[in-house]
Task: structure prediction
Amino acid sequence: MKAFIVKRYGKNEKLHLTDWAEPTVDVNDVLVQVHSAGVNQLDSMIRNGEFKLFLTYKPPFINGHDVAGVITKVGSKVSRFKVGDEVYARPSDYNIGTFAELISIHENDVALKPINISMQEAASIPLIGLTAWQALVEIAKLKKGQKVFIQAGSGGVGTFAIQLAKHLGATVATTTSAGNFALVKSLGADVVIDYKSEDFEARLKDYDVVLHSNKNKKILEKSLRILKPGGQLISLTGPPTPEFAAQLGLAWHLKFITKLLSAAAKKYAKKRNVNFTFLFMRAEGNQLSKITTLIESGVIKPVIDKVFPFEQTNEAMAYVETGRSKGKIVIKLK
Result:
């Protein structure tokens, strides 16, 4: 089969299109013929080697974390799916590889594709949808009447998280450029701030939750300051915490490293009487099934900026890396 692989780590490295052995199908796996694959910042970060201390993928390996396609084979113990099912998924860590014609995925990571959207739209959802769900529903337990600040509202996670937060009954503030105001307002944002010309700290106060996606330390501190006492900041960009290390089952020395990396942020949060959590989303088919229900009921709509042909996967990655996409970027195989 054809696949885009990481031959070696590096920011200037390209993915290489190559012939690759078809994946084996374990007893609990389903083999998916890939129709479309979402492209994420995480794909670039993995290729760059930014997570190699914690996620030790050994090159060469196939990249890609989002998929929509059709099941062509099932393992002997698979009970939830059958050949011919249209599905979507974010494969679990160490089992990634959606930039390929086929991928084998554990059935627990898979959900039936929403019937009212295309394969391209479905491929745009799993990683960002699960990220927003785990942040707002699982960790923050966001409730009706609460206030949430979602940074980068026109990006992949932002476009999904705004819709989910509004469904949960929250007041939503977000940042974006002036040209994207109409987009984020159409998704449900109540307060929209131009990050190029406005200081969000001057406009926001006593928020319950911040969904943080900026690597700048000063932005992190500002975000902690706008929270009310007892409020919750959930960071998608770090610093990683010992709790994250424990989730991945990392060795003690790596847990110690994350303790050092997150010490300043946790200390500042404690001083402000607020909470700091680092989220590295996980694969979760049951949660994705709940997201399917929201999409089929019209509560959440996919937002796609561009669809690239499979052969232009590197160009799709480069476009994502600009940070200017409105919603998600998808590559199409079928």
About this structure: The first strand starts at residue 2 and ends at 6. The mean pLDDT is 97. The chain has eleven helices and 16 strands. The first helix runs from residue 41 to 48.
